Protein backbone atom coordinates (compact mmCIF):
# COMPACT_ATOMS: atom_id res chain seq x y z
CA UNK A 1 0.00 0.00 0.00
CA UNK A 2 1.33 3.44 -0.88
CA UNK A 3 1.97 6.09 1.73
CA UNK A 4 -1.29 7.60 2.91
CA UNK A 5 -1.80 11.29 3.11
CA UNK A 6 -4.02 12.75 5.80
CA UNK A 7 -6.65 13.63 3.21
CA UNK A 8 -6.65 10.02 1.93
CA UNK A 9 -7.38 8.31 5.28
CA UNK A 10 -11.10 8.19 4.71
CA UNK A 11 -10.61 5.74 1.84
CA UNK A 12 -7.94 3.58 3.47
CA UNK A 13 -8.99 -0.01 4.18
CA UNK A 14 -5.80 -1.36 5.73
CA UNK A 15 -2.61 0.04 7.22
CA UNK A 16 0.49 -2.09 7.62
CA UNK A 17 2.18 -1.22 10.89
CA UNK A 18 5.80 -1.28 9.68
CA UNK A 19 5.73 -0.41 5.98
CA UNK A 20 2.98 2.17 5.60
CA UNK A 21 3.47 5.72 6.71
CA UNK A 22 1.13 8.26 8.18
CA UNK A 23 2.07 11.92 7.83
CA UNK A 24 2.60 13.80 11.05
CA UNK A 25 1.90 17.41 10.28
CA UNK A 26 2.90 20.50 12.21
CA UNK A 27 -0.13 22.72 12.68
CA UNK A 28 1.78 25.62 11.14
CA UNK A 29 2.59 23.68 7.96
CA UNK A 30 0.16 24.23 5.13
CA UNK A 31 1.80 21.88 2.62
CA UNK A 32 1.02 18.19 2.02
CA UNK A 33 4.48 17.00 1.03
CA UNK A 34 7.24 15.65 3.20
CA UNK A 35 9.27 18.85 3.28
CA UNK A 36 9.37 21.49 5.93
CA UNK A 37 7.92 20.49 9.29
CA UNK A 38 5.75 17.65 7.90
CA UNK A 39 7.25 14.24 8.72
CA UNK A 40 6.35 10.63 7.96
CA UNK A 41 5.99 7.96 10.68
CA UNK A 42 5.02 4.29 10.64
CA UNK A 43 2.05 3.09 12.64
CA UNK A 44 4.37 1.22 15.00
CA UNK A 45 6.39 4.36 15.67
CA UNK A 46 3.19 6.24 16.47
CA UNK A 47 2.41 3.52 19.07
CA UNK A 48 5.83 3.77 20.70
CA UNK A 49 7.29 0.72 18.94
CA UNK A 50 4.60 -1.54 20.41
CA UNK A 51 3.87 -4.60 18.26
CA UNK A 52 0.25 -4.80 17.24
CA UNK A 53 -1.53 -8.16 17.72
CA UNK A 54 -2.53 -10.16 14.69
CA UNK A 55 -6.16 -9.38 15.36
CA UNK A 56 -7.53 -6.38 17.17
CA UNK A 57 -10.74 -6.97 19.12
CA UNK A 58 -13.29 -4.30 18.43
CA UNK A 59 -16.00 -3.19 20.82
CA UNK A 60 -18.86 -3.98 18.43
CA UNK A 61 -17.52 -6.70 16.14
CA UNK A 62 -18.40 -10.37 16.45
CA UNK A 63 -15.12 -12.24 16.78
CA UNK A 64 -13.88 -15.67 17.93
CA UNK A 65 -11.14 -15.54 20.55
CA UNK A 66 -8.74 -18.46 21.00
CA UNK A 67 -6.48 -18.94 24.02
CA UNK A 68 -7.25 -15.53 25.44
CA UNK A 69 -7.44 -14.64 29.12
CA UNK A 70 -10.26 -12.25 30.07
CA UNK A 71 -9.63 -10.47 33.36
CA UNK A 72 -12.87 -9.73 35.24
CA UNK A 73 -15.06 -9.80 32.13
CA UNK A 74 -18.56 -8.33 32.26
CA UNK A 75 -20.99 -10.32 30.10
CA UNK A 76 -24.01 -8.16 29.37
CA UNK A 77 -25.82 -10.20 26.70
CA UNK A 78 -24.62 -13.82 26.81
CA UNK A 79 -25.55 -16.23 24.04
CA UNK A 80 -25.02 -19.91 23.38
CA UNK A 81 -24.58 -22.39 26.24
CA UNK A 82 -24.65 -19.82 29.03
CA UNK A 83 -27.02 -20.19 31.99
CA UNK A 84 -28.62 -16.89 32.89
CA UNK A 85 -30.20 -16.07 36.27
CA UNK A 86 -33.66 -15.40 34.86
CA UNK A 87 -33.69 -17.31 31.58
CA UNK A 88 -35.68 -20.47 30.86
CA UNK A 89 -33.19 -23.11 29.79
CA UNK A 90 -32.97 -26.90 29.58
CA UNK A 91 -29.92 -28.37 31.31
CA UNK A 92 -28.71 -31.84 30.29
CA UNK A 93 -26.44 -33.95 32.50
CA UNK A 94 -25.72 -31.11 34.90
CA UNK A 95 -24.98 -31.46 38.60
CA UNK A 96 -26.45 -28.76 40.85
CA UNK A 97 -24.60 -28.45 44.15
CA UNK A 98 -26.87 -27.49 47.08
CA UNK A 99 -29.63 -26.02 44.89
CA UNK A 100 -32.37 -23.95 46.54
CA UNK A 101 -35.73 -24.67 44.90
CA UNK A 102 -38.38 -22.08 45.72
CA UNK A 103 -42.11 -22.02 45.01
CA UNK A 104 -42.62 -25.37 43.26
CA UNK A 105 -41.15 -28.19 41.20
CA UNK A 106 -42.59 -29.75 38.08
CA UNK A 107 -41.70 -32.05 35.22
CA UNK A 108 -42.11 -35.66 34.16
CA UNK A 109 -39.92 -36.90 37.04
CA UNK A 110 -42.24 -35.40 39.68
CA UNK A 111 -45.47 -37.37 39.99
CA UNK A 112 -48.73 -36.28 41.57
CA UNK A 113 -49.97 -39.84 41.91
CA UNK A 114 -52.09 -40.61 44.97
CA UNK A 115 -52.06 -44.39 44.43
CA UNK A 116 -48.30 -44.64 43.76
CA UNK A 117 -49.30 -47.17 41.09
CA UNK A 118 -46.29 -46.54 38.83
CA UNK A 119 -43.99 -47.82 41.60
CA UNK A 120 -40.96 -46.05 40.09
CA UNK A 121 -37.51 -46.03 41.68
CA UNK A 122 -36.43 -43.01 39.61
CA UNK A 123 -39.24 -40.47 40.19
CA UNK A 124 -40.36 -38.23 43.05
CA UNK A 125 -43.81 -37.90 44.58
CA UNK A 126 -45.50 -34.67 45.62
CA UNK A 127 -46.28 -33.93 49.25
CA UNK A 128 -49.99 -34.19 48.53
CA UNK A 129 -49.58 -37.61 46.90
CA UNK A 130 -47.61 -38.95 49.85
CA UNK A 131 -50.22 -37.73 52.32
CA UNK A 132 -53.09 -39.11 50.24
CA UNK A 133 -51.37 -42.49 49.93
CA UNK A 134 -50.71 -42.73 53.67
CA UNK A 135 -54.22 -41.57 54.54
CA UNK A 136 -55.76 -44.16 52.24
CA UNK A 137 -53.83 -47.03 53.83
CA UNK A 138 -55.53 -49.71 55.90
CA UNK A 139 -55.19 -49.78 59.66
CA UNK A 140 -53.72 -52.79 61.42
CA UNK A 141 -52.14 -53.85 64.70
CA UNK A 142 -51.01 -56.95 66.57
CA UNK A 143 -50.01 -58.07 70.03
CA UNK A 144 -48.13 -61.23 71.08
CA UNK A 145 -46.91 -62.30 74.50
CA UNK A 146 -46.94 -65.17 77.02
CA UNK A 147 -47.74 -65.67 80.70
CA UNK A 148 -45.16 -66.75 83.22
CA UNK A 149 -47.84 -68.27 85.47
CA UNK A 150 -51.08 -70.00 84.62
CA UNK A 151 -54.11 -67.66 84.43
CA UNK A 152 -57.49 -68.80 85.72
CA UNK A 153 -60.87 -67.08 85.42
CA UNK A 154 -64.38 -67.87 86.68
CA UNK A 155 -65.89 -65.17 84.47
CA UNK A 156 -65.00 -63.42 81.24
CA UNK A 157 -61.47 -61.96 81.62
CA UNK A 158 -58.77 -60.42 79.42
CA UNK A 159 -56.03 -62.85 78.44
CA UNK A 160 -52.87 -61.37 79.93
CA UNK A 161 -52.49 -57.91 78.37
CA UNK A 162 -53.77 -58.88 74.92
CA UNK A 163 -55.06 -55.53 73.63
CA UNK A 164 -54.58 -53.28 70.57
CA UNK A 165 -55.90 -49.87 69.55
CA UNK A 166 -56.34 -48.94 65.89
CA UNK A 167 -57.59 -45.84 64.08
CA UNK A 168 -59.72 -46.86 61.13
CA UNK A 169 -61.47 -45.08 58.29
CA UNK A 170 -64.64 -47.00 59.08
CA UNK A 171 -65.97 -50.18 57.52
CA UNK A 172 -64.93 -53.75 58.22
CA UNK A 173 -62.36 -55.03 60.67
CA UNK A 174 -60.88 -58.56 60.75
CA UNK A 175 -59.89 -59.74 64.26
CA UNK A 176 -58.03 -62.95 65.11
CA UNK A 177 -57.11 -64.12 68.62
CA UNK A 178 -55.29 -67.25 69.78
CA UNK A 179 -54.39 -68.72 73.17
CA UNK A 180 -53.79 -72.11 74.77
CA UNK A 181 -56.56 -72.94 77.26
CA UNK A 182 -58.22 -75.80 79.19
CA UNK A 183 -61.50 -76.26 81.07
CA UNK A 184 -63.64 -78.94 82.70
CA UNK A 185 -66.82 -77.07 81.81
CA UNK A 186 -69.16 -78.01 79.01
CA UNK A 187 -68.51 -74.80 77.11
CA UNK A 188 -65.57 -72.43 77.64
CA UNK A 189 -63.29 -70.64 75.22
CA UNK A 190 -62.06 -67.31 73.81
CA UNK A 191 -64.07 -64.20 73.00
CA UNK A 192 -63.35 -60.68 71.68
CA UNK A 193 -64.21 -57.28 73.09
CA UNK A 194 -64.52 -54.12 70.98
CA UNK A 195 -64.67 -50.75 72.72
CA UNK A 196 -65.82 -52.31 76.00
CA UNK A 197 -68.46 -54.68 74.58
CA UNK A 198 -68.14 -58.41 73.94
CA UNK A 199 -68.89 -59.45 70.38
CA UNK A 200 -70.85 -62.53 69.35
CA UNK A 201 -67.96 -64.42 67.75
CA UNK A 202 -66.30 -66.91 70.10
CA UNK A 203 -64.32 -70.11 70.16
CA UNK A 204 -65.50 -72.98 72.32
CA UNK A 205 -63.76 -75.78 74.15
CA UNK A 206 -65.66 -78.68 75.76
CA UNK A 207 -64.56 -80.76 78.75
CA UNK A 208 -60.82 -80.57 78.06
CA UNK A 209 -58.53 -80.95 81.04
CA UNK A 210 -55.52 -80.76 78.71
CA UNK A 211 -54.26 -77.48 77.26
CA UNK A 212 -55.39 -77.03 73.68
CA UNK A 213 -54.60 -74.10 71.33
CA UNK A 214 -57.80 -72.21 70.58
CA UNK A 215 -58.53 -69.54 67.97
CA UNK A 216 -61.32 -67.01 67.62
CA UNK A 217 -61.93 -65.20 64.27
CA UNK A 218 -64.39 -62.37 63.87
CA UNK A 219 -65.19 -59.74 61.22
CA UNK A 220 -66.68 -56.56 62.59
CA UNK A 221 -68.78 -54.85 59.90
CA UNK A 222 -70.08 -51.29 59.79
CA UNK A 223 -67.39 -50.02 62.14
CA UNK A 224 -67.36 -46.25 62.49
CA UNK A 225 -64.27 -44.24 61.56
CA UNK A 226 -61.99 -43.38 64.44
CA UNK A 227 -60.04 -45.06 67.25
CA UNK A 228 -61.11 -48.50 68.50
CA UNK A 229 -59.73 -50.74 71.25
CA UNK A 230 -59.90 -54.53 70.88
CA UNK A 231 -59.15 -57.09 73.61
CA UNK A 232 -58.74 -60.88 73.64
CA UNK A 233 -60.64 -62.52 76.50
CA UNK A 234 -61.30 -66.00 77.87
CA UNK A 235 -64.63 -67.12 79.31
CA UNK A 236 -65.84 -70.17 81.28
CA UNK A 237 -69.24 -71.77 81.47
CA UNK A 238 -71.14 -70.37 84.46
CA UNK A 239 -69.92 -71.89 87.73
CA UNK A 240 -66.73 -73.24 86.16
CA UNK A 241 -63.15 -72.14 85.59
CA UNK A 242 -61.12 -71.59 82.40
CA UNK A 243 -57.32 -71.67 82.41
CA UNK A 244 -54.74 -70.02 80.11
CA UNK A 245 -51.42 -71.87 79.88
CA UNK A 246 -48.14 -70.33 81.01
CA UNK A 247 -45.21 -70.08 78.57
CA UNK A 248 -47.49 -70.52 75.56
CA UNK A 249 -47.78 -67.54 73.23
CA UNK A 250 -51.13 -65.80 72.93
CA UNK A 251 -51.76 -63.40 70.07
CA UNK A 252 -54.22 -60.75 68.92
CA UNK A 253 -54.15 -59.41 65.35
CA UNK A 254 -56.39 -56.78 63.76
CA UNK A 255 -56.59 -55.65 60.11
CA UNK A 256 -58.90 -53.19 58.39
CA UNK A 257 -60.53 -54.68 55.30
Question: How does the SSE layout of this entry go?
Answer:
Layout: E1 21-24, E2 39-42, H1 43-46, E3 110-111, E4 124-125, H2 127-135, E5 140-145, E6 151-153, E7 157-168, E8 171-183, E9 189-194, E10 197-202, E11 208-223, E12 226-235, E13 242-244, E14 250-256
Structure report:
This protein has 257 residues and is mostly beta strands. The chain folds into three domains: 6-46, no CATH class; 106-137, no CATH class; 140-256, Jelly Rolls. The protein contains two helices and 14 strands; from the N terminus they run ββαββαββββββββββ. It has helices at residues 43-46, 127-135, and strands spanning 21-24, 39-42, 110-111, 124-125, 140-145, 151-153, 157-168, 171-183, 189-194, 197-202, 208-223, 226-235, 242-244, 250-256. The chain is rod-shaped, with a radius of gyration of 48 Å. The N and C termini lie far apart (99 Å).
Amino acid sequence: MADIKILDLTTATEITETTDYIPVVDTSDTTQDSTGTTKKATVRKLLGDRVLPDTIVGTTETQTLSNKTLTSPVINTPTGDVVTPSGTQTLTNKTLTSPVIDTQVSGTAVLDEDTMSSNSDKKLATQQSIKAYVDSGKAGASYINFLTTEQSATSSAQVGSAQVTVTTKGGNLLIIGTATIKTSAATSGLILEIDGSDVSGASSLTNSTNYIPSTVVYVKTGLSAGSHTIKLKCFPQAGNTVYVAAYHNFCLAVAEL
